[in-house]
C-alpha cells in the first residue's frame, strides 16, 4: 500500500504537512474547547450575584421562577437542571458545592439533609417571614433540631378526582365515608364504568393510596412515626391498611403495574372510569379549556370516625440555602424575598396549577379547583407530604416501590410482605 | 406471502425462504419502533390523547419547533461537541500509541499489559463513580477557572472520565489491527533510518485509517450517548450535553410523548449523519480487523 521509501524524500513531506496541518487544527480546536471548559459563564465571584439552583425545568414553572426572580432587587443567576436528574443527583449536588439557594421539598426529605449539615440554617430569615405562614407550614419547614431550613412556595393536594359532567349525568354525589365510597363504586360498576383509575408502572402513584388509607385508619401521628422508622411495619395496624386496600382492589383498574399514571388519567379523560386518586398535577393531562374545567375532586373519605378525615396529603415545594453559600448575605436576602406574598403572586400568575403556601397570597385569580384545594388544605389539621418525601429517600425507592408493586401483584400475602418490609427497614434505618 | 409465491415458481430452496422470512421479521421489528416514534412525533398531543395513538390525524410540525426551543438543543449540541470532539481525538491518539508499542515491540510484560487494558473494559462505570466524584471534588482550582472551585462541574472531568474508560477498548482493537500489518513495512522503515515516532506517525497510523474510522464512529456514538458521567460530574444545567435535553422534555409528572418523540428524532440525526459519512471506512475496518492471524 504505502511505499516506505518516500519517507526520506521531499514529496511526502508536502502531503504530510497538509495532513498534520489539518490534524493540528483539530487538536487546537480541541484544546480551545478544553480551555473554555472551566470558564465561568456567570462569573459569580464572592460577593456577586446570588446563584439559584432550580429544578423547575418544565416549561411553565421555569417561566414562573424566572418571573419570580425578576421581582428581587438584586441580581439572581438561575441554574436550571431538569427535575428528575436534580432529584436523583441531590447527594452529589449538595456535597459538590451547590448554588447559594436551591429548590427542594418540605418534610422529612428536607430534614434528612439538614441533619447531615448539608443545608443552611435560616431561622433568622423565618423570624422576618414567619408571620406570613400557618403553623402547619412552619412545622413542615422545621428540621428535627427545631431550626428552620426551608421556605415554602406552593403545594398541590392529593384527592379523589372526577369529571363533573359524568357525575351530573349519572347523579353521583361525593361520598363522605368508606361505606358510601364502596356503595358508589358498586354503582359505577353497574353503570359499566371502572370505579377507580389506577396505574402504578412508575411505582410511586400507589404510595398515595397507601398514605391515605394509613392516615384514615391509623391517624397522622402514627403515619409520621411509621415513616420515620420508629414503628414496626409488621404491626397489626399496618396489616389493617393492606387488608383495607385489598378490599378496595376490585374497584381499582386491573393490571395497574403495566400502566403509567398518565395512561390511567386517560381513562378518566375518556369517561371510561369514574374517579382517580392522584395529585392535582393530573390536570395537565387534560386539554386546556372545557375538558380541564370539567375536573373536580373530593377529599379521601373517612374510614374510622375516631380518626376522622382532617389529614390531607399535600406535598410542598420551596427553597433551601446551601450550608456554606458563597454569598450568604445575598442568599438570605433572596430567601426573605421568596417568603413574601408578592413573590408567590409573581410565581402563581405564570403557573396557576398550584396553590400558594403564603397566607396573604392573592387568591382572586384562582380557578375553582385551586380555591377548593386551598380550602381543603387550610381546613386540614395536619398535612402529610407523600410517602417518598416523608421517609428516607432510599427506603422509599428501594423498599417501598417494589413492596407496593408486590402487594398489587399478590395482595393475599400481607404477613410475608410486611415482614419483609420491616426487615429491610431495619437495615436501612440502622435497626 | 411473497415467500410462498416464490417457492412455487422456483424449485425448493427452503433455506432461502426461511432466510427471507427471518430478514423481513427482523427488518420490521427494527424499523417499527422508529417509524412509530417518527409518526407520532408529527402529531398533536391533544389529538392523540383523545383519539389514542392508533388513530390517524392531528398532524403538525409544532412538536419539532417546541422540542428544539424547550430542550435548548442549540446550547446542548454545542456542549456535546465540546465533550465529544476532544474525548474521541485524545482517546484515539493515546490508544493508537499504546497499541503501536504493544503490537510492534516485544518486551516481558507485553501481553500482560494488553490483557490489563482489555480487562479494564469489564470494570463497571458505576463502581468508580464515588471515588472519581471525590477525586474531582478534592482537586481544588481557583474560582477564576472553575465556578465550583474544583474539577467538579467542569468539562475536563467528563472528558477525562470518558477518555479513561474508552482507551482500553480502542487499544485492544487497534493493537489487533496493527498486528495484521506486514512486519516488513516497519522493518524496512527502520533500515531507512526512521525512528519510533516516525514509524508510528507516518507509517502505521495512515495504514490504520479504516480501523481508526470505525473506532471513531463507535466512540462518537458512545460518548454522544453518555448521560451518566455528565449528570454525575456536572451541576450547571447550561453545561449539560444533548442527552439531558431529552430529559428536559420529560416533565416532573407529566410527559408529552409526542414532544419527546420529536426530541428523540432530533437527537438521533447526528449519529445517523456520522454513520453515513464514515460508513465506507466502518465496513472496511470491521472486516479487516476480523481476520487477525
List key phrases describing it.
heterodimer; A: 431 residues; alpha/beta; D-Maltodextrin-Binding Protein, domain 2; six-stranded mixed β-sheet; globular; B: 293 residues; mainly alpha; 2 domains; 74% helix
CATH fold field value of the largest domain in chain B: MetI-like fold
Query: What is the count of distinct domains of chain A?
Result: 2
Supply the number of helical segments of chain A. Answer: 20
Uncertain residue segments of chain A:
1-46
Question: What is the CATH superfamily classification of the largest domain in chain B?
Answer: MetI-like
Please mark out the parts of chain B with pLDDT under 50 across 5 or more consecutive residues, or reply none: none
Biggest sheet, spatial arrangement of strands of chain A: 2-1-3-10-4-11
Strand content of chain B: under 5%
The first-level CATH class name of the largest domain in chain B = Mainly Alpha
Q: Return the average pLDDT of chain A rounded to an integer.
A: 84
Structural class of chain B, please?
A: mainly alpha
Assembly type: heterodimer
Q: What is the alpha-carbon Rg of chain A in Å?
A: 27 Å
CATH architecture of the largest domain in chain A: 3-Layer(aba) Sandwich
Q: How far do the termini of chain B sit from each other?
A: 45 Å
Q: Can you walk through the features of this model?
A:
The complex is a heterodimer of chains A (431) and B (293). Chain A is of the alpha/beta class. Chain A has 2 domains: 50-155 and 315-381, 3-Layer(aba) Sandwich (D-Maltodextrin-Binding Protein, domain 2); 158-313 and 392-429, Periplasmic binding protein-like II (D-Maltodextrin-Binding Protein, domain 2, 3-Layer(aba) Sandwich), CATH 3.40.190. Chain A is built from 20 helices and 12 strands. In chain A, strands 2-1-3-10-4-11 form a 6-stranded mixed beta sheet. In chain A, strands 6-7-5-8 form a 4-stranded mixed beta sheet. In chain A, α6 runs parallel beside α15 (328-338). Chain B has 293 residues and is mostly helical. Chain B folds into 2 domains: 2-41; 63-290, MetI-like fold. Chain B is built from 14 helices and no strands. Chain B has helices at 2-9, 14-41, 45-51, 62-70, 73-104, 110-120, 129-138, 155-179, 183-191, 196-207, 209-225, 228-233, 242-249, 257-290. Chains A and B meet through α1, α3, α4 and α13 of A and α3, α5, α8, α9 and α10 of B.
Amino acid at each position: 500500500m504505502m511505499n516506505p521509501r518516500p519517507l526520506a524524500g521531499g514529496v511526502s513531506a508536502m502531503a504530510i504537512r497538509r495532513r498534520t496541518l489539518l490534524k493540528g487544527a483539530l487538536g487546537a480546536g480541541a484544546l480551545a474547547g478544553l480551555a473554555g471548559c472551566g470558564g465561568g459563564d456567570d462569573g459569580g465571584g464572592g460577593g456577586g450575584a446570588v446563584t439559584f439552583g432550580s429544578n423547575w425545568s418544565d416549561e411553565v414553572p421555569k417561566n414562573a421562577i424566572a418571573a419570580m426572580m425578576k421581582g428581587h432587587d438584586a441580581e439572581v443567576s438561575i441554574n436550571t437542571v431538569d427535575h428528575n436528574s436534580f432529584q436523583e443527583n441531590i447527594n452529589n449536588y449538595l456535597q459538590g458545592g451547590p448554588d447559594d439557594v436551591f429548590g427542594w421539598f418540605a418534610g422529612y426529605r428536607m430534614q434528612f439533609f439538614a441533619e447531615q449539615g448539608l443545608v443552611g440554617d435560616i431561622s433568622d430569615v423565618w423570624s422576618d417571614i414567619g408571620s406570613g405562614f400557618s403553623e402547619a407550614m412552619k412545622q413542615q419547614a422545621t428540621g428535627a433540631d427545631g431550626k428552620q431550613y426551608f421556605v415554602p412556595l406552593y403545594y398541590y393536594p392529593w384527592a379523589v378526582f372526577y369529571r363533573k359532567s359524568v357525575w351530573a349525568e349519572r347523579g353521583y354525589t361525593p361520598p363522605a365515608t368508606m361505606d358510601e365510597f364502596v356503595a358508589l363504586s358498586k354503582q359505577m360498576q353497574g353503570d359499566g364504568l371502572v370505579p377507580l383509575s389506577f396505574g402504578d408502572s412508575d411505582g410511586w402513584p400507589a404510595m398515595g393510596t397507601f398514605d391515605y388509607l394509613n392516615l384514615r385508619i391509623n391517624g397522622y401521628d402514627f403515619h409520621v412515626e411509621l415513616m420515620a422508622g420508629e414503628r414496626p411495619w409488621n404491626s397489626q395496624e399496618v396489616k389493617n391498611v393492606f387488608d383495607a386496600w385489598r378490599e378496595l382492589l376490585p374497584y381499582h383498574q386491573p393490571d395497574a403495574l403495566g400502566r403509567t399514571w398518565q395512561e390511567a388519567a386517560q381513562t378518566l379523560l375518556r369517561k371510561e372510569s369514574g374517579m382517580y386518586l392522584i395529585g392535582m398535577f393530573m390536570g395537565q393531562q387534560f386539554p386546556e379549556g372545557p375538558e380541564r374545567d370539567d375536573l373536580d375532586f373530593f377529599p379521601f373519605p373517612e374510614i374510622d370516625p375516631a380518626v376522622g378525615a382532617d389529614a390531607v396529603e399535600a406535598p410542598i415545594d420551596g427553597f433551601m440555602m446551601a450550608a456554606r453559600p458563597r454569598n450568604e448575605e445575598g442568599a438570605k436576602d433572596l430567601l426573605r424575598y421568596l417568603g413574601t406574598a408578592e413573590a408567590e403572586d409573581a410565581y402563581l400568575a405564570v403557573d396557576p396549577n398550584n396553590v400558594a403556601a403564603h397566607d396573604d397570597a392573592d387568591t382572586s385569580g384562582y380557578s375553582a379547583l385551586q380555591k377548593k384545594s386551598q380550602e381543603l388544605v387550610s381546613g386540614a389539621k395536619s398535612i402529610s407530604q407523600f410517602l417518598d418525601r416523608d421517609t428516607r429517600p432510599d427506603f422509599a425507592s428501594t423498599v417501598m416501590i417494589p413492596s407496593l408493586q408486590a402487594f398489587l401483584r399478590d395482595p393475599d400475602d400481607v404477613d410475608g410482605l410486611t415482614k419483609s418490609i420491616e426487615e429491610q427497614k431495619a437495615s436501612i434505618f440502622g435497626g | 406471502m411473497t415467500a410462498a409465491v416464490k417457492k412455487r415458481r422456483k424449485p425448493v430452496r427452503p433455506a432461502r425462504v426461511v432466510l427471507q422470512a427471518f430478514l423481513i421479521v427482523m427488518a420490521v421489528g427494527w424499523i417499527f419502533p422508529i417509524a412509530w416514534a417518527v409518526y407520532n412525533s408529527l402529531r398533536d398531543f391533544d389529538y392523540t390523547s383523545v383519539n389514542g395513538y392508533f388513530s390517524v390525524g392531528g398532524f403538525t410540525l409544532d412538536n419539532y419547533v417546541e422540542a428544539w426551543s424547550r430542550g435548548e438543543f442549540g446550547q446542548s449540541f454545542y456542549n456535546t461537541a465540546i465533550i465529544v470532539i476532544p474525548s474521541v481525538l485524545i482517546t484515539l491518539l493515546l490508544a493508537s500509541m499504546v497499541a503501536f508499542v504493544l503490537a510492534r515491540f516485544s518486551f516481558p510484560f507485553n501481553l500482560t499489559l494488553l490483557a490489563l487494558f482489555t480487562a479494564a473494559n469489564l470494570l463497571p462505570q458505576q463502581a468508580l463513580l464515588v471515588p472519581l466524584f471525590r477525586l474531582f471534588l478534592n482537586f481544588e482550582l481557583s474560582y477564576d477557572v472553575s465556578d465550583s472551585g474544583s474539577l467538579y462541574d467542569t468539562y475536563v472531568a467528563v472528558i477525562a472520565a470518558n477518555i479513561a474508560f474508552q482507551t482500553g477498548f480502542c487499544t485492544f482493537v487497534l493493537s489487533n489491527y496493527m498486528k495484521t500489518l506486514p512486519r516488513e513495512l516497519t522493518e524496512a522503515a527502520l533500515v531507512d533510518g526512521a525512528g519510533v515516532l516516525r514509524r508510528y506517525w507516518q507509517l502505521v497510523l495512515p495504514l490504520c485509517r479504516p480501523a481508526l474510522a470505525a473506532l471513531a464512529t463507535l466512540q462518537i456514538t458512545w460518548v454522544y450517548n453518555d448521560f451518566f458521567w455528565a449528570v454525575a460530574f456536572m451541576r450547571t444545567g447550561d453545561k449539560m450535553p444533548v442527552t439531558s435535553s431529552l430529559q428536559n422534555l420529560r416533565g416532573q409528572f407529566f410527559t408529552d410523548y409526542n414532544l419527546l418523540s420529536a426530541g428523540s428524532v432530533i437527537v438521533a440525526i447526528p449519529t445517523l449523519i456520522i454513520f453515513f459519512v464514515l460508513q465506507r471506512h466502518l465496513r472496511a475496518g470491521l472486516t479487516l480487523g476480523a481476520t487477525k492471524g
